[in-house]
Amino acid sequence: MALIKSISGIRGTIGGRPGENLTPLDIVKFTAAFGTIISGQKPAKVVIGRDGRISGGMVRDLVVSTLTGLGIDVIDLGLSTTPTVEIAVKMEKADGGIILTASHNPKEWNALKLLNKDGEFISAETGAKVLELAAADDYNFSAVEKLGTVSQNEEYLQKHIDAILAYPLVNAELVAKKNLKVVVDAVNSTGAIYVPALLKALGVENVILLNGEVTGRFAHNPEPLPEHLSQLSNEVVKQKADLGIAVDPDVDRLAFVCEDGSMFGEEYTLVAVADYILTHRKGNTVSNMSSTKALKEITLKHGGEYFPSAVGEVNVVNKMKEQEAVIGGEGNGGIIVPDFHYGRDALIGIALFLTHLAGHKNGLRSLRSHYPDYFISKNKIELEKGIDVQSIFEKIRKKYQRNPVNTDDGLKIEFDNDWVHLRTSNTEPIIRIYAESDFESKANNIATRLMQDIKEFA
């Protein structure tokens, strides 16, 4: 059981004791802190939406009651996606947004993701104020005559799809001509509603939906990693489909399966979309420093410049703005298209990816062969309470002091053409260990070596 308080929101396991897990008291406290900060002295409006989690209804009721108790008007999108809520905040000219989702975490988790008036994750400064106010329990609720209102809005599924179809580099006519057969793994959440609707709008008529009941009882671990997508892979082969699509519960991460059942690679979702974007628009790219170096190579090939950022969507977005990137995101399958909106969006990612594929003569496996074959070994070590991570990282840094080291976000060490990145997670009580090389065995060996270092210095 866990409760993680960060500058981007609050995330935890449902049940247990307040302050140690995500209980009703914690949900009210952090909602009140956020609502107090964004409303100030004026009437405010907040957009909310949730994924399909079992606890979603309960969390929604607590959030709505707290916000209206502060005198804030709430626009509730109901079952929605993270990028849809982000878009709605701007369209509704709201003062902020709250997405009720723990993203890729298992079913016992939920979270409050906090958005500013631009539909982007709140800044570190605002996040620190939320944490400070929540700790102080200093709120001022409204009198009965000034309570906020609640309105339901079910129009944003179509509004999101319409905006995607209107995006200049999305070509629905070209996609429709490809006559694709697609298998979708919606992992029992809102992707089951949004992804088939988008595919239909793109002219994809033959869609097989797996795990399509929105129950929140995820049929498998909801993180769209190869080890969790065997059902999708098998079904693509069985159905003789052109490809498979996997999203996470809040539909901001995206992965593809090739027609032979092999993984396109979550790291290469961004690489392929960037290749397509850069073919039509020259410019710079950004990804976090735990992402494949293939994006840098593709960017340089198109005459642009690549910039790494610290891990975390808000960090990627800030770097994209700073460097005026035309495309960016994260190697976990997160696509950020800046002139669409500054947020990871699997739906615009699907539309751009399928447009790219439709312009390719052969199938998805053939398209994948156009990109480098690097391997990232992704590992994690669970943290015990009270462990001094910075002390461990400092000892490791000294051990590898002859290698190029970056300490902007945890510890990234370069070994000739390979690298390893160690950092604490923003969403789980773990240390992540990512290593990339041109051979899978080399990447695994590098990661194993650093995991042994962590254990030795712990």
Automatic annotation (TrEMBL):
Residues of the Alpha-D-phosphohexomutase C-terminal domain: 394-450
The UniProt record lists the keyword Zinc-finger: no
Molecular function terms from GO: phosphoglucosamine mutase activity
Top-level taxon in the UniProt lineage: Bacteria
Keywords: Isomerase, Magnesium, Metal-binding, Phosphoprotein
Enzyme Commission identifier(s): 5.4.2.10
InterPro entries, per database record: A-D-PHexomutase_a/b/a-I, A-D-PHexomutase_a/b/a-I/II/III, A-D-PHexomutase_a/b/a-II, A-D-PHexomutase_a/b/a-III, A-D-PHexomutase_C, A-D-PHexomutase_C_sf, A-D-PHexomutase_CS, Alpha-D-phosphohexomutase_SF
Transmembrane regions listed in the UniProt entry: none
Stored PROSITE patterns: PGM_PMM
Cofactor(s) the protein needs: Mg(2+)
Broad enzyme group: isomerase
Alpha-D-phosphohexomutase alpha/beta/alpha domain residues: 8-138, 160-261, 268-373
Family: Belongs to the phosphohexose mutase family.
UniProt name for this protein: Phosphoglucosamine mutase
Source species: Terrimonas ginsenosidimutans
